[in-house]
Amino acid sequence: MKNFKNLLLTISVLLLGATASFAQDNIVGITYSMAVPTTGVNNYINEASFSGVNVEYRKFLNDNLSVGANIGWNYFQQSNGTQTYYGDNGAITGEEFRDSDILQTMVTSHYYFGEEGGIRPYIGVGVGAAGNYFDNQVGGIAVVDHYWSFAVTPEVGVLAPLGGSGTYLLTNVKYNYMTEAKGYGDYGFWSFNIGLAFDF
């Protein structure tokens, strides 16, 4: 058992040393996010969103591969004018407003093409959880609910240096897919993101 522990310790030290020898920069990025609803979301709100932001961290394991985390938020809203809905006990008429806040917390991985220091196209994926907080209001009556579901977010993008200052243009397109949960079906949306990333 002692020899096995020593072997594990030796392997761990070697792996950490290998990772350190290939380590590149750590970067933090922030992007403005615009979104277009698709599956599920467009059954509730079909208008594009211009309210969104992503904050992310990436650690380079070598010249071409990074791992990290991303927190993203997109807000969808829509006004449907005056509507009348009928129920068993009568009807309600009023201005209808629909809102949906979608918050995603993801672990991410990205693979980069090109050379370090140049313009670098990349592909990536995020896996994690998404919270959907929504309400539907007609007149003075509102129905509010929220739930969390499993989320997968593939993306393609470009990381481009801006001079030699350790600042980068960060832009990408993501498809944000969330599985069904709490009796609600799966849903998704495209997001188009642009912003800056910084070495630290």
Automatic annotation (TrEMBL):
Keyword Signal included in the entry's annotation: yes
Superkingdom classification of source: Bacteria
Lineage start: Bacteria, Pseudomonadati, Bacteroidota, Cytophagia, Cytophagales
Protein name: Outer membrane protein beta-barrel domain-containing protein
Signal peptide start-end: 1-23
Alphabetical UniProt keywords: Signal
